[in-house]
Design brief:
By secondary structure, the chain is an all-alpha fold. Among the domains are: about 10-50, no CATH class; about 65-100. The protein is built from five helices and no strands. The protein has helices spanning about 10-25, 35-45, 55-60, 65-80, 85-100. α4 runs antiparallel to α5.
Length: about 120
């Protein structure tokens, strides 16, 4: 059975890197010739389960859409509020989501209530 092929677009820089890898793989290989399609497929399939968490985070940071990120944080906070989270829990969730997504948030403290004794 013939394997179904699909087309993906990559940048010229990525294509050039794939060309360099292909040249290295084929250099001195007397058992055949590795085609770009086969090499790209092999690289993707063999790295699927070995991509380190740090690389995943770096990819997310490189392609992050800040507006979508903030909308996502807002959605999670609204869901937490609908599910009964109190103010302290909402703040903790906000801080955690911000840190997990590389957002530096200023630490804000609430002023102590004042009493007016006249």
């Amino acid at each position: 059975m013939k394997e179904k092929k699909v087309i993906i677009a990559i940048s010229e820089e990525s294509k050039n890197a794939l060309d360099r890898i292909q040249t290295k793989v084929n250099a001195g290989f007397i058992g055949g010739r590795i085609k770009k399609y086969d090499l790209a497929s092999w690289l993707i399939l063999n790295s699927e389960n070995t991509v380190p968490a740090e690389a995943i985070n770096n990819i997310r940071k490189a392609f992050r859409d800040d507006l979508k990120l903030l909308e996502g944080i807002r959605r999670q906070l609204l869901n937490a509020r609908r599910n009964g989270a109190n103010r302290s829990e909402m703040r903790e969730l906000s801080i955690r989501l911000s840190r997990e997504n590389g957002i530096e948030m200023p630490v804000m403290t609430m002023p102590a209530p004042t009493t007016n004794h006249e």
